[in-house]
Amino acid sequence: MSRIFAIWLISLIVGINLPAWALEFTADRITTIEGRTGKDALFYRDDMWRLEHHAAGPVSVSIVRKDKRIVWLLLSRIRHFKTVPYSGEQDPIVTEKLEGEVSRDEIGQETREGHQTILYEVTTKQGERTEVYYQWLATDIRFPMRLMKKDASWSVEYQHVKIRPLSDSLFQLPMYFTPLEE
User: pLDDT tens, 106-120?
Assistant: First the structure.
């Protein structure tokens, strides 16, 4: 361990860029939009993620492959899948800094899911539109445990967050699944 620290310290002093560590984790994701709540199991790796949906419906799993610019929608009961184009609008918000962030003010502290968090009021700007959010950022894992629009019309919360490596098989099409015919 001391050897890794020494290499890191030398690279910091000399200015050598080491590769960034990929964020890999599992969590339960609870999303609330206009009073309607949904829950998914999320398996996340920087450029791909898997959502196992806990709602009734034909699609039981979505596998997003940002690297391939596609999404596979799995219909597990009939062992079929549908491929749709990737759209960045559905990306999970799992970074400390929000896109278009223009200000961040600390307004309190709270413990969430066993993690000490700092509660921030964050203002973002996208073109002419300004949005204000509350963000609960876990100080130990630098992870946003909850993000909510200030008007409470939208929120996403992560529970049971476990930072850990994930199997590549989570992000592949299952064997014996066939394309859904149009």
Answer: 999 999 999 999 999
- Distance of alpha carbon 131 from the chain centroid: 20
- Tokens 């690279």 correspond to 11
Domains of the chain: 21-166 (2.50.20.10)
- DSSP string for residues in 130-145: EEEEEEEEETTTTEEE
Kindly state the tokens that stand for 59: 């699609």
In whole angstroms, give the CA distance from residue 155 to residue 76.
Answer: 28
| DSSP summary character for residue 5 | H
Bridge partners for 106 per DSSP: 120
* Per-residue 3-state assignment (H helix, E strand, C coil) for 23-79: CEEEEEEEEEECCEEEEEEEEEECCEEEEEECCCCCCCEEEEECCCCEEEEEEHHHC
pTM for the complete prediction? Answer: 0.82
Name the one residue in this structure whose structure tokens are 């993620």: 49
